[in-house]
Each structure stands twice: as C-alpha cells, then as structure tokens.
Amino acid sequence: MLSHLRPAATLVVLFTGLCGLAYPLAITGAAQALMPQQANGSVIKKGDTVVGSALIGQAFTSSRYFAPRPSATATSPYNPLGSGGTNLGATSQKLKDQIAAAVAAWHAAGRGGPVPSDAVTSSGSGLDPEISPQNARVQVASVAKARNLSEKEVAALVESQIQPRLFGVIGEPRVNVLSLNLALDQAGPAR
User: Looking at the record, which segments are called Disordered (predicted)?
Assistant: First the structure.
C-alpha cells in the first residue's frame, strides 16, 4: 500500500508545481513580454488615471458624449461581474418593452433619424464597448450640438475611430465608445 502512495504523492506535488505554478508563470511572463497592454486588461488611461478598459463598456449619460449599447447587467449596468445576455427571445414581450423604452429614450435624448439596432439592444455579454459606425454617425448631430462643434468636425472624429474588420473579413467595422469619447474630449472642450 505504501509503495503506491509515494509515487502518487510525488506526482501530485510535481504536477501541482508544474500546472499550478510553472505554467501560469510562464504564460503570464510571455503575455507581459509579447502583449503587455492586453495582458493587463486593455486599460485606457488619461494621464496617470485609469478611465476604463477597451474591452468593457461603460455608461455615458451626458448628451456631450456618444452613447454606448445598452447594458444587459440590469441591476448594476456595465458590471463585468454580472456579464451575460438577457436570454430573451424574439417573441418575448419583455424584450419588446425594453426595446420600446430604449427607442423612446433615444429620441428623448435629442437623437434624430432612424434608430440603429445596436442602440436599443444589448450584446451577448451585456458589456460590449463598441457600437456600429452607423450608430455613431446617427449620434453626430446631437453630440456636435451639445458641444457646440461643427458636425463636420465630429463626423471626422468618428470616421478616424472606426476599426475595420479583422484581416478584412472577420467581424464587423466598429467604434469603441470610450476611445471615441476620450478623443472627443481631446479635440477640445465645448465652445
């Protein structure tokens, strides 16, 4: 019996050290060396202050900023601990009511034109930091008015922030709302 315990205990200690210590340290070291920005959560800073992450959406309620997609983390919006979709089906009355309320809020905020679908529906994670270029373009007039900027200036800023499809084929063009709003602040305060 004891002759079986020694090799088993040795293997437990060996694999615990290998899988629980050596492997995580090697992967963390490689990530820090090869892609430190991503390894540290894609944190975005304004000076020395962390203002958010490029990977997690956050609320912007002022009309001076571009609005993000709605959050599906209803009890605490944009909370990464509560990540997850709404799981409401297309025939769900609750989903229809949420969309109707979001459309009404969109128009109440002074945004005109057709309402893009990503402006009134949350993403699968409920935390998507990006909106479609169409969504950003529809918001240009209201943001320009709130900041007393020309629509041409704000539209040019939107176009400069559009991220293309990965390798030209994967995903859809998108605009990171936090990056766009920070670029908007950098472009100058409201006149």
Answer: 109-133
**Could you list the residue range(s) of the whole structural domain that residue 109 is in?**
41-187
Same domain as 87, residue 32: no
With CA atoms as reference, report the closest residue to 134 among 145, 149, 153, 120. Answer: 120
Residues 106 and 174 in one domain: yes
The two structure tokens encoding residue 151: 């629509």
Count of domains observed in the chain? 2
Token readout for 48 is 């020395």
Q: Which of 27-31, 78-82, 184-188 has the largest mean confidence?
A: 27-31
| Arithmetic mean of pLDDT, 34-45 | 89
Q: Could you tell me which residues come within 8 angstroms of residue 151 by beta carbon, excluding any fewer than 6 positions away?
A: 140, 141, 144
Sign of CA dihedral 83, 87, 88, 89: positive
What pLDDT, in 10s, does the model give residues 90-133?
898 988 998 898 899 888 888 877 899 898 888 877 788 999 99
